[in-house]
Amino acid sequence: MGKRTIQVSLIGNPNTGKTSLFNRLTGLNQKVGNYPGITVDKKQGSCSLSSTGKATITDLPGTYSINPTSVDESVVLKVLQDPSHLNYPDVMVVVADAENLKRNLLLFTQVQDIGVPTILAINMADQMDKKGISIDVAKLEQGLETKVILISAKKNEGIKELKSAIENYEELKSVSDFQEVAKKIDSSFYEDLQRVRKEESLYHLWLCITQQSFGTTQKAELSDFIDDVSKIKKYQHKETIYRYQKINSILKESYVLDRSKAKDLRAKLDKVFTHKIFGYVIFVGVLSLIFQSIFSWASVPMDFIDEIFGSLSEGVKENMSEGILPDLITDGIIPGIGGVVIFIPQIAILFFLIAVLEESGYMSRVVFLMDKIMRRFGLSGKSVIPLISGTACAVPAIMAARTISSWKERLITILITPFTTCSARLPVYAILIAIIIPNTKVFGFFNLQGLTLLGLYFLGFATALLAAFILHRTLKIKSKSFFVIEMPEYKIPSLKNVLITVVEKTKSFVLEAGKIILPISILLWFLATHGPSSYHKAEEDVKKEIVSSNLSTEELEQKVASKKLERSYIGIAGKTIEPVVKPLGYDWKIGIGLITSFAAREVFVGTLATIYSIEGVEDEGTIKERMEAEINPQTGKKRFNFATGMSLMIFYAFAMQCMATLAIVKRETNSWKWPLIQLFGMGALAYISALLTFQILQ
């Protein structure tokens, strides 16, 4: 006989260790999807409870209350209000932090009133002695009328007891004290409410009213109760007060927190990390370390991946006869996949370092520290994390904006995040800086090329803040704006949690970006290898042009390849847009690079390698030499001079040339309006800025 499966939902305040418990229960037996109709991640995993039972664990987003203030938190209410849902819980496990038990129990009492059997798991039990905390579990169970288990997700303590309680959830009572709370608030109001729909629980009806979440029939029946908004808010406030009164009376008999017995470094560390001067100095130092680590540690694996895909492409050429299919594989599919995979080391390292900072508790201090600065630009401290994440890739960075409760602040953060310098811009910056900026020292120890790259990072971040300020002033969106941040305990990060986070987020990046870039790369390959009748006469015309020249077979092939590219559909497109890009200092070849890099910015360098007939050569040094030697036929001077190089870097600093980012913005805003505004707005800024740069510097 197969094991019976119990549906379990984990719920809790942010930073209570809920995710750690989820990872402890499920390990790598988990998957990430989306809740139907919304963009919030749905994390589920399987867990063996015993020889006869197993559970499907759903990790609900962290929330302080059933009453949602953000997109993530709204998931909790939607799940609990729909008993017909496939994964509706048989039992709820509310995860609480031993040190903040009073605040955590507000959510517990709300969940318990839903009517689902509920278990209270008090995490960080291993820290109780250090914090001066003692809990009388028996009295707490008596007061809450449920099973209470002390656990340490980090040290695997109490997990067996929790699994046993989950397996025997049917022994728990379905408790709801909302009737008592309702009598204290306004008994006649709630009695009238219950009469409208006697078949539903009173608390469910109350949630329908407070959250405006009901069907057409319910809305008609409850219309008399939803009009007085001020009364509803007043009653919500009273509900919270009465809940805390009960919580206080229960904890008075079962919970002791004696700070005098605590041996805690938290306060001392907070004084340093949130200091009005030293806090920012430390943060800048941490960022510098992160960037240095990303580029230093990622170089070796990126080179290794590059070699693998290069060898793979060569292997296909050697082992397959000439034709359309091998060309598609070697010039379309392999580069398309390689264009995503090669950035996995940088993405993984960034996610690893950010996960370490979050697990340690430091990232919450950064959010708190930056809130005062970000407020001046219409944002909050929570916008810092997406902006930092954007230095690796805008796709997961935009997804990280889901924790921002204000829709206006979240939208602004989504719209400005692509301004931050992502890793896809680095290949473009690196080769252009190497060409136009001399490798000299400033003040004896600063490298001028390195300072230029730092300046481009600063330009991106400064532009993001300026754009945020303008959007804050112009967007007429009504939105509640308040800032609540949990200050968790400092702790040594769990390696298991960090690695699971890295694996899941990196996988998400590869799938989201890959499914966009791969088909576009194939399309670009087709456009570059096909053309009108003149395309097919390229070889014949080249041979006529060089009748008297003694060229080797390889040189002839390169000439033919260059002529074919010029006459291909993509070459024709480049020639077509040349009048538009010429004022920026570009020719049709650079124009092709701009077109192809709409799939992904880093494609620009590879496109130039093909355009300049360096067939099969991927070494940037060789591309650099060819670009340096490129001559403008009209002036007789170098094509990539200082003015053109700076114009290109300014263009790429501002342009929205990333289809994957556009796709994720559409998904997060559930509209094409904002990604299109983003595309054309950033494009116009990039064009005008590049135009001014070239015209001033030439």
Précis, in short:
This protein is 62% helix and 8% strand.
Highlighted features:
698 residues, alpha/beta, Rossmann fold, 11 strands, 8% strand
User: What is the C-alpha radius of gyration, as a whole number of Å?
Assistant: 30 Å
What structural class do helix, strand and pairing data support?
alpha/beta
Average pLDDT reading: 80
Shape: elongated
User: How many strands?
Assistant: 11
Number of H- or I-type helical stretches: 32
Order of strands, main sheet, comes to 2-3-4-1-5-6-8
Oligomeric description of these chains: single chain
As a percent range, the share of strand residues is 5-15%
Topology summary:
Layout lengths: L3 E9 L5 H9 L3 E5 L6 E8 L4 E7 L11 H10 L10 E7 L3 H14 L3 E6 L4 H4 L1 E3 L1 H8 L2 E4 L8 H9 L10 H19 L5 H10 L4 H6 L1 H4 L2 H26 E3 L8 H8 L4 H42 L4 H18 L2 H17 L1 H14 L8 H6 L4 H6 L7 H10 L9 H11 L4 E2 L3 E2 H27 L20 H35 L3 H4 L1 H8 L7 H15 L1 H13 L6 H9 L6 H9 L8 H10 L12 H13 L4 H11 L3 H25 L1
Parallel strand pairs: 1-4, 1-5, 5-6, 6-8
Antiparallel strand pairs: 2-3, 3-4, 7-9, 10-11
